[in-house]
Amino acid sequence: MSAELAKKIDHTLLKADTTKEQIQNLCKDAKNYSFFSVCINPCWVAVAKHELTGSSVKICSVIGFPLGANTNELKAYETQQLLKAGVHEIDMMMNIGALKSGLDLEVLEDIERVIQAAKSCPVKVIIETALLSEEEKVRASEICVRAGAAFVKTSTGFAGAGATIQDIKLIRRTVGSLMGIKASGGIKTYEQAMQLLEAGATRLGCSQSVAIMQEASS
Predict the structure, then answer these.
(1) What is the DSSP string of the chain?
(2) Distances in Å between the alpha carbon of 30 and those of 1, 25, 214?
(3) Domains of the chain by residue range
(4) Would you state the pLDDT for residue 175?
(5) Rg of the chain over all Cα atoms, to the nearest angstrom
(6) Is residue 208 predicted with pLDDT exceeding 80?
(7) pLDDT at residue number 30
(8) Which one of 73, 76, 171, 174 counts the least CB within 10 Å of its CB?
(9) Shortest CA distance to 122 belongs to which of 38, 201, 179, 184?
(10) What confidence score (pLDDT) does residue 1 get?
(11) Do strands 151-153 and 180-184 pair parallel, antiparallel, or not at all (unpaired)?
C-alpha cells in the first residue's frame, strides 16, 4: 500500500529560501521512496535533473507561481523554457483575479496558452481554493476542463489553507471521473493523504512526504 501511495506523491519544496542542498536532499528522498516526482521552482530544475539521472522520479516545476498574475505571454515563455530544461510536468497558477472579476474567457485563454506551449507535457492548473467561493471553485474547475488541462490542483500552500476533503469532492463532481485532481497544501499525515485520495484526488503535493511514508509503514 505504501508503494502505491508513493507513486501518487509529488515531493514538494517551493519555499523562497530553499537552498541547493535542500533540493539535493529532496531528490535523494524522492529516489529512496520512489515518489512520482519532485515539485520545485524553475531555478532548481537543472540541479534536480542532475540528481535524478537514472531514476524513475520525474521533475515537475511551476509557472506564474504563486500569484498567477503574470501575462499569458510570459507564462507561455516560462513553459517553453521549462520544456527545454527537461521537466516532465508543469503546475501553472490560474489568474485568480481575472476569475473573480468574471473574466472567464481571459482565464481560459491564459490556461490554453500554457497548454499549447507545453505540447505533450501534462499541465496541472492551481485554482487556489482558499481564495474562492464554492461557485468560483466550480467555474474554475469547468474552465480547466474546457482548456484541456490534465489536472485541477487545489492550492499553492501559500494562501493560508490547503486541500480539503470537501473541495476534492466538489472538484471531482465538477470535472467528472477522468480528469486528474492534485490535492496540495497542508497534507501532513498518512490519514489525511488517504482521505484525500478516497475523496477523489489522484495526486498529492506534499512537503511532509517522508513523514507520511514513515507513518504509512509503521
Answers:
(1) -HHHHHTTEEEEE--TT--HHHHHHHHHHHHHHT-SEEEE-GGGHHHHHHHTTTSS-EEEEEESTTT--S-HHHHHHHHHHHHHHT-SEEEEE--HHHHHTT-HHHHHHHHHHHHHHHTTS-EEEE--GGG--HHHHHHHHHHHHHHT-SEEE---S-SS----HHHHHHHHHHH-SSSEEEEESS--SHHHHHHHHHHT-SEEEESSHHHHHHHHT-
(2) 17, 9, 13
(3) 61-216
(4) 98
(5) 16
(6) yes
(7) 98
(8) 73
(9) 179
(10) 64
(11) parallel
Structure confidence at residue 160 as a pLDDT band (50, 70, 90): confident
Which residues sit opposite 206 in a β-bridge? 11
Distance CA 203, CA 6 (A): 10
Q: Rounded CA gap, 200 and 177, in Å? A: 9
* CB-based contact 59:40 (threshold 8 Å): yes
Domain 61-216 bears CATH identifier 3.20.20.70? yes
- Residue 182 has what pLDDT? 98
Letter for the amino acid at 141? S
Q: How far apart are CA 165 and CA 208, in angstroms?
A: 18
For the cut 90, the answer to whether the pLDDT of residue 2 exceeds it is no
Q: What is the tens place of the pLDDT at every residue in 128-141?
A: 999 999 999 999 99
C-alpha cell at position 174 = 465538477
SS (H, E, C) 71-107: CHHHHHHHHHHHHHHCCCEEEEECCHHHHHCCCHHHH
176: left (phi over 0), alpha (psi -120 to 50) or beta: left
| pTM of the shown model | 0.97
**Active site (catalytic) residues:** 91, 153, 182
